[in-house]
């Protein structure tokens, strides 16, 4: 039966429903939103994102809910109303009357995964049709040949299944949030508060001089062994998570216990070597237990042992975590020289360049900051000199893709043994020559 045959069977005067109309399920969307109000912790683990909601009002509600949930306030109808008013979106979503309707859309949050699956299937159907239409246009316009358009479509359908395709990038969608952020930052500046436009590192001198790590571009944090690159990456991730953001570290060097020992050294103030040797008295054990209770609440910071993982596998895992957490503000990779080559026969510098390009392509599709840990060549210590951009070990490709490069250097000053320098040889796609002093507390494994 052809499309024309189906059209003849349709009752006279009745038009065909579009794909958007057939796949939209406002009731399921409202049920997901209601479940989040009933049990706000749902937002920490539910496999859903804004693109799963077809109605713009529901997208705005979802984003406002996430913003409240990530703030110190408890999510309920009152705090949600306040957030919508702050964004000038209360009337756009239908006012208080519609908020009340959403709050009563489901009797329980127990079925939220089923509701979310309905929304997700609708989103996949809508975006698949859009992708198919785009494939036809590329083929008819001569932009791609037959085999090429097939490869493009297969790749695009894979993105759709992961939920990272066709986010709303219209100016209408981007402008409101940007304006609200600029106004809020302007008010902070007027009050004498320093504003960090990038992802704050938590190290005051770095944030003051650099404005944080850039979003959507790779940064490189490099140093010789024991000079603090892993400590800085971990410290940034912790600061981001405790500020309400999402952070993940992919480690292909140290085992889990090593990372946890460092975390406990910082949290408890107990010397790292004492923790390593398990030389803990009663008071130290009490502090260890108190710190454990605190660290157990670190649901916004993830540590993934990525031994033997390729750059592509790390990026895929980061995408999964981004969807699980709802947002991802910082990704740390420690460190790039241990990532295996994507192809046999590649030389080391070619392998690292390929990994760097993979990371750059991934982070360019996100709003996250990506810090790639790197070694520095041994000649720096041999020649007893400060490192330069060219000292990144096999790092020509890293230097090309990175927007910001930080080289950690210990001048070994007897009067100031904890002082190290962060040398900035590259910033904003251009060469730089900046030195920033920070303190490296090796006993407690923290950079301040």
Comma- or semicolon-separated keywords:
alpha/beta, Rossmann fold, single chain, 448 residues, 2 domains, 50% helix, globular, disordered N terminus, 19 helices, DNAb Helicase, Chain A, nine-stranded mixed β-sheet
Radius of gyration over alpha carbons?
25 Å
Q: Which architecture of the largest domain per CATH?
A: 3-Layer(aba) Sandwich
- The gross shape turns out to be globular
How many structural domains?
Answer: 2
Task: Give the strand order of the largest sheet, numbering strands 1, 2, ... along the chain.
Answer: 3-2-4-5-1-6-7-8-9
What share of the residues does DSSP label as strand, in percent?
5-15%
Please specify the SSE layout and strand pairing.
Layout lengths: L2 H7 L9 H5 L2 H13 L3 H4 L10 H14 L7 H10 L8 H9 L8 H29 L5 H17 L8 H20 L13 H7 L7 E6 L5 H14 L4 E5 L4 H13 L3 H6 L4 H14 L5 E5 L5 H15 L4 E5 L13 H16 L5 E7 L3 H4 L13 H6 L2 E6 L9 E9 L2 E12 L4 E2 L1
Parallel strand pairs: 1-5, 1-6, 2-3, 2-4, 4-5
Antiparallel strand pairs: 6-7, 7-8, 8-9
Helix pairs in contact: 3-5, 3-8, 5-6, 8-9
